């Protein structure tokens, strides 16, 4: 029996070799947070023998063995220039930080820049073979051209958890009555006014998206990939699987089809020891602990208005806690309070997992919200744009966050908010409850994502998971045509009934009356 073991080992090695795949990942997201779930999935796939190539607009921050990263220079500079904005200043004025037209402009211009870049052209000309493409479901339209070019099945990582466009096109039900639009501060419990506004916002966004796709992006893909490329909407309906960046305990329970799996917190991990300089700074805080202030990767603190910076100085100086502040500038602030430490980059998860952390002040980005639940930290949210408002509304509904608005923000309000979540035990109790619900899973989000990725590869696109609902139009899906048939039938039946009754009255009742009159005369 034992002599057969080497042969069995060789067979298993051959099987493992044969199941390894070449995978191409692409994100067109304009902020680095879009890249993080792809990184984590790549780090889960590479040790299993898969070859991963990753195209994005962000240069690698660290080396991942086995990962080939492609960052076309034109796309890198375009995204860097486009996103060098003062989002907070616009929000404080009550303006839309990024208008819908600017979002359309980004989508169309970034696509043209990517596809026109010489590095992208060289990559496409190589005619490499890929077994699977993994695209960013928040903006997959441009990258669908790569799926057509390489003639390979594709799946999404839907990086923006509250974005429903890609889900809807794949046939998933998206009822507006309980699905808040990603930029609105609504929850899944909306009153009549909110449901009306939510429906109108969804319809407007869908109309704008349709115009962008049909009038601009379709011609752009034809220019770069040939006239035979199918329509973008037709290609998007054939998505094999969607890894949804959500989970019921942190986003909302949703009626997903079998080809959707939720992977919120795929990037979350246990805290590691902090660098010595940070640990020394925190150690000196005593029993008061410290507060962490970060606006994430999309909202650069260095671009914020001077007024807000001065306001934050007043707030931080008045607090008994020490403050770690993510601030993207090498310049030292002459008026920086002694209890504040700046950092261009700070290890956020290691900070959130530190036992002396008392509160987290954040913009409400989705990954930050996941991390705060994973590490069990109450938060104050200051939403800025995109999905920040809907993320903050859900966190406040769940009881572990306090939401403040930049339009009405004052030093007194921010101090009150920070002290409220530190000293009111409700916030820490609720975040610990959410943490427990998040952790109570049969597998990690990464294990789930790896399994379904390999499942799609094994079954060559997993067509058997697709729903025919993706091919139905609005009229068919919502049974409007059936309603018209039923209503028309009822109307026809009513008129037939009236006509029959009229004939009956005329021919039988009238005759009977005449006969009675004749009897009386006789």
TrEMBL record:
It is found in: Membrane. One of its GO terms (cellular component) is membrane. Its main location: membrane. One of its GO terms (molecular function) is glucuronosyltransferase activity. The keyword tRNA processing does not apply. Pfam families: UDPGT (PF00201). InterPro entries: UDP-glycosyltransferase (IPR050271), UDP_glucos_trans (IPR002213), UDP_glycos_trans_CS (IPR035595). Its EC number is 2.4.1.17. The chain crosses the membrane at residues 477-497. Coiled coil: none annotated. It comes from the Eukaryota. Keywords: Glycosyltransferase, Membrane, Signal, Transferase, Transmembrane, Transmembrane helix. It is a single-pass membrane protein. It catalyses: glucuronate acceptor + UDP-alpha-D-glucuronate = acceptor beta-D-glucuronoside + UDP + H(+). Belongs to the UDP-glycosyltransferase family. PANTHER family: EG:EG0003.4 PROTEIN-RELATED (PTHR48043), UDP-GLUCURONOSYLTRANSFERASE (PTHR48043:SF27). This is UDP-glucuronosyltransferase.
């Amino acid at each position: 029996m034992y002599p057969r073991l080497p042969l069995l080992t060789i067979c298993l090695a051959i099987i493992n070799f044969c199941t390894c795949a070449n995978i191409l990942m692409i994100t067109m997201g304009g902020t680095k947070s879009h890249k993080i779930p792809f990184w984590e999935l790549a780090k889960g796939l590479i040790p299993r023998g898969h070859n991963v190539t990753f195209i994005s607009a962000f240069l690698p921050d660290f080396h991942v063995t086995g990962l080939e990263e492609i960052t076309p220079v034109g796309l890198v500079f375009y995204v860097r220039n486009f996103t060098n904005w003062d989002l907070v200043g616009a929000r404080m004025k009550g303006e839309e930080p990024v208008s819908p037209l600017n979002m359309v402009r980004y989508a169309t211009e970034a696509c043209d820049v990517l596809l026109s870049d010489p590095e992208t052209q060289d990559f496409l000309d190589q005619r490499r073979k890929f077994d699977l493409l993994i695209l960013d479901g928040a903006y997959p339209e441009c990258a669908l051209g790569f799926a057509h070019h390489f003639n390979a099945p594709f799946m999404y990582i839907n990086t923006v958890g509250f974005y429903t466009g890609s889900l809807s096109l794949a046939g998933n039900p998206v009822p507006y009555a309980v699905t808040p639009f990603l930029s609105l501060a609504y929850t899944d419990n909306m009153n009549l006014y909110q449901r009306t506004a939510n429906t109108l916002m969804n319809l407007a966004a869908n109309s704008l998206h349709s115009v962008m796709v049909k009038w601009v992006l379709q011609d752009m893909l034809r220019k770069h990939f040939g006239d035979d490329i199918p329509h973008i909407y037709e290609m998007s309906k054939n998505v094999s699987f969607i890894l949804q960046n959500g989970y019921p305990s942190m986003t909302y329970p949703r009626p997903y089809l079998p080809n959707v799996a939720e992977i919120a917190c795929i990037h979350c991990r246990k805290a590691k020891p902090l660098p010595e300089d940070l640990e020394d700074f925190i150690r000196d805080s005593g029993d008061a602990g410290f507060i962490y202030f970060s606006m994430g990767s999309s909202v650069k603190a260095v671009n914020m208005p001077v007024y807000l910076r001065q306001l934050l100085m007043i707030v931080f100086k008045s607090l008994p806690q020490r403050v770690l502040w993510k601030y993207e500038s090498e310049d030292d602030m002459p008026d920086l309070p002694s209890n504040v430490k700046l950092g261009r980059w700070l290890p956020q998860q290691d900070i959130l997992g530190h036992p002396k952390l008392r509160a987290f002040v954040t913009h409400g980005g989705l990954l930050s919200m996941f991390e705060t639940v994973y590490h069990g930290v109450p938060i104050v949210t200051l939403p800025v744009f995109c999905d920040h408002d809907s993320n903050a509304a859900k966190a406040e509904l769940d009881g572990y966050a306090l939401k403040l608005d930049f339009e009405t923000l004052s030093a007194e309000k921010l101090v009150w908010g920070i002290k409220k979540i530190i000293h009111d035990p409700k916030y820490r109790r609720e975040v610990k409850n959410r943490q427990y619900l998040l952790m109570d899973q049969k597998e990690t989000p990464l294990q789930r994502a790896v399994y379904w990725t390999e499942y799609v590869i094994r079954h060559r696109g997993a067509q058997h998971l697709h729903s025919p609902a993706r091919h139905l139009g609005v009229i068919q899906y919502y049974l409007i045509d059936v309603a018209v048939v039923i209503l028309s039938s009822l109307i026809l039946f009513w008129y037939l009934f009236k006509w029959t009754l009229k004939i009956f009255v005329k021919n039988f009742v009238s005759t009977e009356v005449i006969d009675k009159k004749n009897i009386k005369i006789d």
